Amino acid sequence: MxxxxxxxxxxxSWNELMTTDVTAAKAFYxxxxxxxxxDMNDAGTDYTMAKIxxxxxxxxxxxxxxxxxxxxxxxxxxxxxxxDKRSKQAVALGGSILVExxxxxxxxxxxxxxxxxxxxxxxxxxxxxx
Length: 130
Prior knowledge:
Number of helices: 2
CATH superfamily of the largest domain: 2,3-Dihydroxybiphenyl 1,2-Dioxygenase, domain 1
CATH architecture of the largest domain: Roll
Helix content: 10-25%
CATH topology of the largest domain: 2,3-Dihydroxybiphenyl 1,2-Dioxygenase, domain 1
Low-confidence stretches: none
Structural class: alpha+beta
Mean pLDDT: 92
Strand order of the largest sheet: 2-3-4-1-5-8-7-6
CATH class of the largest domain: Alpha Beta
Order of helices and strands: EHEEEEHEEE
Number of strands: 8
């Protein structure tokens, strides 16, 4: 059985926009890229799934209250075999943890790390990852 390429360790697997104006972002990106949009709330927060045909390609969400100081921005997720282990490894390699590992209900476990130069990236281990 082959593993979904998006769920392999080390692969960029998801992109997500956190924005202060979801309505405007949805209008902009759907027109620009031809995305179809589906609103959902199965992880406990309002979320918009962007798709090309039936293929999910990105997510759009309102910037969480604890992140209000950040400007709207796209974030990338890299799949890892163990979020907790890899977060600790990032620190050992000179990086830092910006958001401690935590669960996204029904999706997976994630953390946000920064490399030694300050560039940040989200790590994720999907719950159904093989």
